[in-house]
Structures are given as C-alpha cells and as structure tokens.
Amino acid sequence: MDPRSLTPVLRALRLCLHLLVAGLLVLAAVRDRSTGGTVLAAVAGAVYAAGAWLPSVRRSQRAAAGWLAALALSWLALLCATPDALWLAFPLYFLQLHLLPARWSLPAVALTAGAAILSYVGHGAALNPGVFIGPLLGAAVAVATVLGYQALYRESEGRRRLIEELITTRAELAAAERHAGTLAERERLAREIHDTLAQGLSSIQLLLRAAERALPEGSPAAGHIDRARRAAQENLAEARRFVRALAPPDLERGSLAAALERLCEPGAGPRVRFSVSGTPVELPTPYEVALLRIAQSALGNTVRHASASRAEITLSFMDASVTLDVVDDGRGFDPASVRPSSDGGFGLPAMRSRAESLGGTFTVESGPGQGTAVAVSLPLPAGAAA
Asked: For a tag site, which of 39, 153, 322, 342 has the least CB within 10 Å?
C-alpha cells in the first residue's frame, strides 16, 4: 500500500506492526543468548526492514510474495535456533493476509501456525493445550481482524461512490432545472413581446396607414405620418427579431416541420412518423413554440403511458388555420377522468391552455383500448394565411 494513501489510523497501525516485529526480534535474540540466535534475529530484521522500505513490495504482488518467502525462511531459521521466535508468527499472519490474495494467504497462515506449533514441540517443550491453542487462536484473531477490516473498507468505498453519484446527480438536476427555467423564461418573454409590443406596433402601423390615406393631398402632416409609420415598421421588425432570438433551441436549427421531424428520430418507445399536409407558410414564433411544445408533451405522454407501438404526427396547413395531430395506437384512456398533472409537466390542461391562449382549439379523442388522438387548431394571422 502506498504510504501517501494511508489514513492517520492506518499509519499508526503500520508503525505498531513495525515496533512489534522489532520488539519480538530483540526478545528472541536476548533470550537465546547465543551468537547464532543473535545473527539470525539480525538477518530476519534486515529482511523485514528491506521489505518495509522497498517501493516494489508495495506496488507488485509478485515482489511482495518474494519478500514474504524470504522473511518466512529467515523466521524458520530463527525458529530452529530458539522457540521464542514463534511469537513472530502473529505479525506474520497480518503480513500474509494483507499482501497475498485470499487463495494463498489463508494456507500461508495455516502453515505458519503449524510451523510455530512444531517448533515449540521440537525444542522439547511439554505438550499441553496451550501449545496448540495459542498459535491457532492468534491465527483466527488475525484472519477475523483482516477480513472484518476489508469488509468495512468495501462498505466505506461503496458509500463514498454512492455519495459521489448523489452529488453528481444533484448537480445534473440543478443544471437541468436552470436550463428548463431559462427556456421557460425565454418562451414567456417571446410571448409577451409578441402579444404586447409587436402587436401594438403592428396596430400603430395600421392606424398610421389609415390616417395617411385620410389626409388631404399635399397636407404638411403627411411627411410626419410617413416617418412615424416607417419607424413603427422598423421597430416591429426589430421586435420580431427579438422574438425569433428567444425561440426554443429546437426551432433555432430550422423550421417547425424540421423540429417536429427530429422528435420522430428512433429511440425508446413507439415508432413515430411525421408528415406535412398542405402548403407550409411562415408562422409567428409563438405559434411555432406552442405547436412544438404541445407535440413534445403529447409524444411524451405516448411514450410514458400509452404502451403504443406506433404514433404519427401530422402538421396541416389550411387556408385559414394550421393544425397539429398526434395519434397513437396505445391503450387509450377516458379523457373525462384526467386530472391536472401533479409532476410539473405539460399535461392535457397545460396543452389546452397553450392552444386557447392563441385563440385556437384543443381536442382529445380516446377510449380504453382505442388509442389516443390529440388535435390542435390555431387560426392563421392575416399576414400568414396562404
């Protein structure tokens, strides 16, 4: 494990392990009181210190296994010299469980415990239950401690990832809400400009034309009225440019027909076909926004609730009106039982309100098992009629 990634608690445990190994080696050397035991204890200590400081042992499992093998051999040599070396089996358990994969660590722990028991018996000690219970109990405690820590670590990592996902999701939701709020405000401003400023300037222009026609020929006021009419016309064009600039992004990339056709691109849900009937004419931006939003809402209801296999969107241009039809072959419903949408989305009441705000009509034809047909009809303005 990279020391830079250790928490303060793990650093303290690592230091305690180093001190435990050093203390047990000193104890074995002091109690043996022979030159051979002291040398073997020093060799085991040098091997342990080398592994503790070599970066390759922390980075490579193969290097760690090689270091553990060298450490085990030096410990076995010390174990042959003095039975007091068997206490080193306890820190060895932790090293084996930490550095080796599970399929190797548990057998290594079992072999280490067996070597400790055999060395104690081999040095002529009397057999008693403690000879077997001590090393085996130490091995069980080490296994339980390491496995418990690993389980806690996995749980902690799972919670950390969950928290990161929640933070990311919250940021995405906040961004989506801001984007939706921006689009809603753009649509509101477009409607307000069209319904107040643009319509007012258009009325002023018509009144000035009427006043210009009513003036006697050669009237000195004719020039002022003509200049006022041209100013109103220029400001009306500017207002319409503002309205177009505030239109939804779907309409910025082309006409209403193109935006509706993009709604029919393959995806999750039913197959959707789009068609245009009649001769297309340029529609005011509020008309395009309303028809696009109604189509999006109706198609969204089809995907979420209708369980339909096919749907069709038809945009029809007539002499005095433009109509939009969204038809599906889904399971249908009883329109009389529909309640206002509670999730903040565009339900049927919201679609009806959009159509009626522009002087149009909104109808729904459906029944259980009969599919659904949504129809919107908007009267064409005088300047847009074919």
From this structure: 342
Give the count of beta carbons closer than 10 Å to the beta carbon of residue 57: 19
Q: Is the pLDDT of residue 133 over 70?
A: yes
Whole-structure pTM value:
0.40
Q: What percent of the chain has pLDDT over 70?
A: 82
Residue 245: partners with Cβ closer than 8 Å, 6 or more residues away? none
Question: Is 288 in contact with 384 (CB distance < 8 Å)?
Answer: no
Distance between CA 28 and CA 37 in Å, rounded?
8
In the sheet that holds 310-317, the strands lie side by side as 271-277, 310-317, 321-328, 372-379, 361-366
- Dihedral sign for Cα atoms in the order 74, 77, 82, 83: positive
Contact present, 346 and 304 (Cβ < 8 Å): no
pLDDT, one tens digit per residue, over 226-249 is 888 888 877 777 776 666 665 565
- Most confident of the ranges 264-273, 324-333, 337-346: 324-333
Q: Examine the pLDDT at 195 and tell me if it is beyond 70.
A: no
Q: Could you tell me the two tokens for 292?
A: 């696009």
Residue 128 to residues 89, 117, 131, Cα–Cα distance (Å): 19, 11, 6
- Residue 188, H or E segment: helix 129-192
How far apart (Å, rounded) are the C-alpha atoms in residues 163 and 152? Answer: 16
* Distance from C-alpha of 150 to C-alpha of 144, rounded to nearest angstrom: 10
Nearest to 374 by CA among 343, 349, 344: 349
In this predicted structure, the answer to whether residue 342 has a pLDDT above a threshold of 60 is no
Beta bridge partners of 325: 314, 375
**C-alpha closest to that of 112 among 134, 86, 130:** 86
Residues forming a β-bridge with 145: none
Mean residue pLDDT of the chain comes to 79
